[in-house]
Amino acid sequence: MTGRDEATGSRTDPPGVPYAGDRLAPRRVAALVAALVDARDLPDGPVRLAALERVAEQADAAGDVRSAVDARIALIEAYLLHGERWRLVEPVRRCLATTDHHPGLLTSAEVALLLRYQRYAVEAVLGTPRVGLDQTRALLDDLARRVRADGPDAPTVAELRCRVADHLGDEPTARHFYTGWADTRPGPSGGCAGCAPARRAELLAGWGEWHAALDELRQPPTDPDGCTDQPERSLVARLLPELRTGDPSTAAAAHVRAYRRHRREPAAFPHLATHLRFCALGGHLERGLAILAEQLPRLDQPTDDHAAMEFAAAGALVCAAATDAGLGGRTVHRPAYGERPAADLDVAALGALLLGMASELAGSFDARNGTGHHSGRMAAWLAERPLAAPVPLPLDDERFDEPDTGVDQASAGLVDQELVPLTVDLITSILNQRGDQYLVDDGGTVVGRWGDAEIQFRRAGERHEVLHARAMATRRLPAERRAEAYAFCNAWNHDRLLPKAYAHDLGSEIVLAGDVATDLTHGVAPAQLRVLVDAAIATGVAYAGAVAALP
Prior knowledge:
- The protein contains 21 helices and nine strands.
- By secondary structure, the protein is an alpha+beta fold.
């Protein structure tokens, strides 16, 4: 899943409403319940975060423990949405302490969700030096106590202990805990089962266990249909092992397929370092420079410090190899950011800049960890050079035969302008070409998340001849804003052609949605369907963005 691994969950209870078994329901403070509803309704950003923090503090002072926990869970979800896992530690710790003192406060589903957030808080130490090791160890020991050595989440604790030890450069300890994690299925708080083999393969590759990493990736996926990060995450995990074990052609095909999606997906930033290292070590220096130039702006707002460190080091490696090959005089445009003006840097100068960034970040991790592990690891990366002559890369729009990728081959031979019946495979092939992530449910509905919108594509009509696209804004309005929701939809339908907007009243809250239906009785050309899908996503995102911008 997304976020470094997975998407977040959320409560199913209406905001601010205590569940029936809540022992402290009579102690709820009405003003705080209302303030929490208002805070949740604010657009994402600093103002909403400040409002939620204020509600949590006021609830603490008033003794309204349910509102305090609800506000902090909302804070946790907001931090996850914005990729700020390092901020999870304190609200997670406070929620755990509160629920320990009030065992009947949360539902069983909420307890499971809080355990998952506890895992995310432990993982935060891997992404930034801003989280203390003592805090992390305390949270991890507490998680081990809660899930028990014989519980379904015991492998989750083993995984976390393994990854934390590896992060600190303690390979023997990491290998010890790896044995308790390998060949297991993640428990309820263990993250995405579909990505577990890729996480293990990444670890093994870091130890130089190239064949073992590939063997891990050859294992049948535990939950192939439940993961939106696959197959691309596994393709990236195999890039360097395939290259180092003498199969550069398979690595090249995997790189092209995975980068087609990762080039535009914000949550995929941590994978870009591996793409750059593949280009440098595989001898694809022109492509490496092109990717570096394309992705350089993302370094200004990275998902975390660890990903920024590895991107900078991998970019410096590409620049060094390109300079050795006589390409050091080429220029790369670095856009303006904040007070920094735009500049055109030659490859050698850019490499020196990236090297400085990587070294500074590695030093920050090592200072926190009390080791020299990351500085040594980045230095080892930078000392590498191409392993062999480059092999031809598949064209970006060319399909290739890659085992277990999930890539649809049904429409591979279709002529772009030829009319064909509308099929689910045809819809998913368009999304594959765009590099989008999606799921297909049992009824054949294709579901994905784009920005503030969840968009569904399905075939409607007696003969499945109608393409129906439905966009739902992730922001929901409280029931008391019903009239405002209707007015918003009326105004949208008056001023815009697509999508047709409407408000769905759930009683406690209002879902704002829109749909587009296109009759394709006589068939559809792949090129035409691409236009329809692009338009449905673009207008759906615009609609959801307008909902998010409501006061």
